[in-house]
Design a protein that fits this description.
By secondary structure, this protein is an alpha+beta fold. It is elongated, with a radius of gyration of 17 Å. A hairpin with a 2-residue loop joins strand 3 and strand 4 (74-85). The two termini are 18 Å apart. The chain has one domain: SecB-like (Bacterial Protein-export protein SecB, Roll), CATH 3.10.420. The protein has helices at residues 5-14, 95-126; strands spanning 16-29, 47-54, 60-71, 74-85, 141-143, 151-153. Helix 1 packs across helix 2.
């Protein structure tokens, strides 16, 4: 993988967050509520997904982060996106650079929103909040394979 440190630093200096949006909020109870079925966040295996979209004008981009969790009593799916403006960036907004930006900045910006939404949805649907564990910077990283599909590696 080429070293894009200088490009990433330049992008980081000029990019600005335009907004956070929720793309999907879903919780569904499929089993009986039972006090013995409380989810232990340390035993859960959430599925993470990431997507990056470049604006048609090439002056901005969107990073989409999703968390899907299967519980003994149901399922939770929360997907959010961060919109970034980069009109002052002098280089080309290319997917590999934006994936590095997502790993370094955007994922950590979106995770608190996803954690809060999961706690809120599970409180409302299951009667008790599921508090997802804190993810340290670099613990959750995404790579772009040859076919440009984005996959998580944690």
């Amino acid at each position: 993988m080429p070293d894009r440190t200088a490009e990433l630093l330049e992008l980081n200096r000029v990019v600005h967050l335009e907004g956070i949006d929720f793309d999907e909020l879903h919780a569904r109870r499929t089993g009986a509520l039972d006090a013995t079925q409380e989810a232990n966040p340390l035993e859960l295996e959430p599925k993470y997904s990431l997507g990056v979209d470049i604006d048609e004008d090439g002056k901005g981009f969107r990073v989409r982060l999703g968390i899907d969790v299967e519980l003994g009593i149901g399922e939770v799916r929360v997907h959010a996106s961060a919109r970034f403006g980069a009109d002052a960036y002098s280089g080309e907004l290319a997917l590999p650079l934006l994936m590095e930006y997502a790993n370094a900045v955007a994922v950590m910006a979106l995770l608190p929103y996803l954690r809060h939404a999961i706690a809120d949805l599970t409180q409302r649907v299951f009667g008790t909040p599921l508090v997802m564990p804190i993810v340290q910077h670099g613990e959750l990283a995404f790579a772009v394979p040859e076919d440009d599909e984005v996959t998580a590696k944690a």
